[in-house]
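Q: Can I see a sequence and its folded structure?
A: Here is a first one.
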Amino acid sequence: MKDIKAKVLIAEDDQNLGHLLKEYMTVKGYDTDLFANGEIALKGFKNNKYDICLLDVMMPIKDGFTLAQDIRVIDSEVPIIFLTAKAMKEDVVEGFKIGADDYITKPFSMEELLFRIEAVLRRTKGSINQDQTAFTLGKYLFESNKQTLQIGSKSIKLTTKEADLLLLLCQHTNGVLDRNYALKKIWLDDTYFNARSMDVYITKLRKHLKDDESIEIINVHGKGFKLLIN
């Protein structure tokens, strides 16, 4: 029997989409529970232990944002991904204020959703402690709380965005940091302008790390970036 990768709560009032999501996730090795509105989803969450929650924003009785707030009272750490047809910036900001880990707008491909789920699970359940603030990167010492990058006697003071981006890369060392996830986590929106801004910060980080040839930040076409330490 296939090993269960994770237990997933799906709250989606669109019956067709909900069943499609459940079937797809089951085929991919996930144990999934589907709920048609936020109220019964909250009851389900109270009765089971879930590894990740997929919440539709626009649901009857209890909407996704309200459900997420209720879930956060019970469990402040469980990953949450919002599914919605809305793409307005204020909704994205609201979702992240509540504590969302990602946000995907309809229509989306099942493959993209699966990639995002796996990226979030790697980040939240990976080997790196999410409270970790100090990282050894080859010859460098990166302290995210101090926003400093030190090599030998040389200390580089990073900007907030540089430090935030390097922290995400460190949490995904030798794995892929999803471009859209990073944009929404740091810039709160994955617009073209913000994407170009992130590219500039990636270039800045490469320059900061240039004194150790064993460290690379590479582009992963169509996905994001990877911090490699050889």
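Q: Show me another, different protein.
A: A second, unrelated one:
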Amino acid sequence: MKPNSILFGMSFAVAANIAVAAEPAPVIEVTAGTMASGTTSSISEQLGSLERKLDARNRAQVNVQRQLDELQNEVNELRGITELHTYQLSQVLDRQRELYQELDRRVSEALKPANQVPAAIIAPANSGDVNYSNNLTENEAYDRAVNMVLKDKRYEEAIPEFEAFNQKYPNSSYAANAHYWLGQLLFNKSELTKARQEFDLVVTQYPDSSKRSDAMLKLAMVEQKENNSGKAKAIYQKLLAEYPNSSAAKLAQPRLKSLK
């Protein structure tokens, strides 16, 4: 009986071991836990990365806004400086206009010849309508030529100075005046041919110049001095027709009568 019992017990043990061996290992549960843990870790990393990117972008936007604010402040400062300089330049140009008007008046007086022509035939300068340049170099060049006549009385040296000015600044707002005063200087030297060219240039090329009526008077005087009575008479008549109320017209009337 004992051997049978032992054999039965061994058979039962073997069967139990086989049954236990046949049980599947909990592989699925371990794998699922690992995957769930890995997914959670991945999402956390992605969220952390997004947070870092958003934070970096926010800091960048703050820096850009600060730079824009600084640039706007600089622009406002520059605008204020520009407006100040514009105002100061306007004041300087206004002062120059006043000075040039006074200079132009005094030049007219200074250029009246003492012996060659009676003072009555010199038309007074009409400088109120002169347009002044914004080019300071151009202003300085014209001022230098005028001062040679007004301050230094260097009439001979003023001639090439005006000639150089006319050549360098042919489209200057002072061009008509410069040609007129050059003609006046040449007229006073009795260089009548050259003077005629300057006066004729003012008459033909600067119809809106305040010096045109004076240039017509001088042009007629040149023709009269050269015994071209017909031409002189025609110019005087044209002057009276175009500028009947001008100072030049008043001076032309007695000269025209003397030709009849």
